[in-house]
Specification:
199 residues; alpha+beta; Protein Transport Mog1p, Chain A; 7-stranded antiparallel β-sheet; 3-stranded antiparallel β-sheet; 4 helices; 10 strands; 25% helix; globular; signal
Length: 199
Amino acid sequence: MRRFVSGLVAAVAAAGVMTGTSALQGNAVTEKQQVVAAQSAAVKFVTRKFDYDSDFGYLSAAQLPSTWRMVVQQGWQVTRFLDPKVDQMVNISTAYSGHLTTAGAVAEKRKALKGTKGLKVLGAKTTTMKSTAGMGRLTVSTIVYTYTRGKTTRWVATRYIGLTGEDNAGVEVTVAGSPKNAKFLGTVLAKATTTLYTR
């Protein structure tokens, strides 16, 4: 377990996330896992616009799965994209906090998670990345964990992003789904991070 967590933290530092293999027995892969992997491989990433303002139009965009359904969560600065075939999603808040650093936001998230059923924090890391959308150097702090929802285990990675060289947690991006699909969800998170544009 310690070896896995070390590998996961290293992967987060490189802007990716790893899937745990401890739930798999040897090389056995179930039919359901094969279906999820096939669906993930078939996903096309395109620029998706969101944060619509009636005066200025769309204020944000990122590379996200083309078929995922967009749902505005509250106001217009929290948007969720839902996979119509698999129970997984990405949630983006472009007005998270101007008062917390990205590392501070992860610390607050840890506190908020206390008491969560079946919680296992797999790792947390702060690093820097380069935006491909003109947002400069990004400071990113990520926490990866699993928890129990009903009879199932959910895998979650929440990332706080400081844009244009700052380290304030201006943006929060969360991906969630099955632990079996963690590698793909990590790809969604990485693409959403580096391609995010917001004004």
